[in-house]
Write a structure and sequence with these properties.
CATH topology of one domain: Serine Threonine Protein Phosphatase 5, Tetratricopeptide repeat
Oligomer: single chain
Shape: elongated
CATH superfamily of one domain: Tetratricopeptide repeat domain
CATH architecture of one domain: Alpha Horseshoe
Structural class: mainly alpha
Helix content: over 70%
Radius of gyration: 33 Å
Distance between the termini: 87 Å
Strand content: under 5%
Largest sheet: none
Order of helices and strands: HHHHHHHHHHHHHHHHHHHHH
């Protein structure tokens, strides 16, 4: 086998995207030329493109064994990053430790090891590395954002917000830091500030489903300021578009649609009841007129009042029917979202409860009761399901 010719052919296949064919050539090349470090480097990248990180790391390891100097640093940094992706954080940290030994003046390896410890959940080790990085780096934005996350997890929301703000002073376009600051503001009760941060983050990264969901939650909590639930529903819809398996987004949108349905029904009832109120006032005026000199109107008043009372039951039915028709689209959309949430999480207490509310809204008492019973089966202490069930079955 001619090394140069076959190697060039393999690289051309990679450029064309013919990865399987390239892998066959690399297999033969490595069998015949096992000391060629570039072969392991290139094949590792092919495995990475194909999504096989474990095999990529195997080739990176063989590359490291054959490398030295700057090539060794590059190979170690690539393997460490891939260990992070595989959630093999101890091995990633070991590679970063070795890189710190090879390049003692490069503080960013300390930051990366701190982040690996953070991802592993070893927060004390992470803090030690991140603190060192913050002290040494000129603009320690990456170390600061993880330092802030740790402080937030430990309940120091004010300190975390300060860390994220400082991070943004170094990198104003860092959507992740904006999102994390928004989350801390939301948790601390600053709904308006949180929404501002989530909105700014979405301007920078509109493909982040979590940001859309989080802003939707903020807007849901401030729904009265938006007059209806349409604004949060739109954000939940965008989150679902980007992540079709986000259970909480289906719950949020389903709840928003339910509220929209209730509002439409109340609006319709208000219109009809206002008309009934006007009629009652008109009849009262007739009575007053009769008593002050128009007694011939009294029989007409009594006749009209009796007719009005006899029609109340039918009128109520008409009000509910008309209101339900107007709310039907919202209820159907709410049901679809809540059913999807239950597909993703069959033990979702919220999904059963809100679906029961939807069934109750459209008058399906039997299905509503069944969902409220299931809610209580999953959470016997649910604050509302028991009362709802008693009202339906009492």
């Amino acid at each position: 086998m001619d090394y140069e010719e076959t190697h060039l052919e393999a690289r051309i296949l990679v450029q064309k995207g013919e990865h399987d064919a390239a892998l066959e050539l690399y297999e033969g090349l490595i069998a015949e030329f096992p000391d060629k470090v570039e072969l392991f480097h290139e094949r590792a990248n092919v495995w990475y493109v194909k999504g096989d990180l474990a095999k990529a790391v195997e080739d990176n390891t063989r590359e490291i064994a054959l490398s030295e100097g700057e090539d060794l640093v590059n190979a170690l940094s690539v393997r460490a990053a891939r260990y992070d992706m595989l959630e093999r954080y101890d091995e990633a940290a070991a590679d970063y430790t070795r890189l710190m030994e090879l390049e003692s003046g490069e503080i960013h390896w300390v930051t990366r090891r701190g982040v690996a410890y953070f991802d592993k959940g070893d927060l004390d080790a992470a803090l030690a590395d991140l603190e060192r990085a913050i002290e040494k780096e000129e603009k320690p934005w990456w170390a600061l954002v993880h330092w802030g996350r740790i402080r937030g997890q430990r309940g120091d929301l004010e300190g975390a917000i300060a860390d994220f703000t400082r991070t943004l002073s170094y990198r104003p376009d860092y959507a992740y830091a904006l999102g994390q600051r928004g989350y801390c503001r939301f948790t601390s009760g600053d709904q308006e500030g949180a929404e501002v941060d989530f909105s700014a983050a979405l301007e920078l990264d509109p493909k982040d489903a979590w940001l859309w969901y989080s802003r939707g939650v903020c807007r849901w909590n401030r729904v009265k300021e938006y007059e209806d639930a349409a604004a949060p529903a739109k954000d939940f819809s965008k989150a679902i578009e980007l992540d079709p398996n986000m259970t909480d987004a289906y719950l949020g949108r389903g709840n928003a649609y339910y509220v929209e349905a209730v509002e439409k029904m109340e609006w319709m009832k208000g219109i009809v009841m206002e008309a009934a109120k006007d009629e009652a006032e008109r009849l009262l005026l007739m009575e007053q007129l009769a008593h002050i000199g128009y007694p011939e109107l009294i029989p007409r008043y009594n006749q009209t009042l009796v007719a009005l009372r006899s029609q109340r039951t039918e009128l109520d039915k008409m009000i509910l029917s008309a209101s339900a028709m107007m709310a039907e689209d919202y209820v159907r959309d709410a049901m679809a979202d809540l059913n999807r949430a239950l597909e993703l999480d069959p033990a979702s207490v919220k999904a059963y409860y809100f679906r029961g509310c939807c069934y109750e809204l459209v008058g399906d008492r039997e299905k509503a009761a069944a969902d409220f019973r299931q809610t209580l089966a999953l959470n016997p202490g649910h604050p509302h399901a028991g009362q709802k069930l008693s009202e339906l079955c009492g």
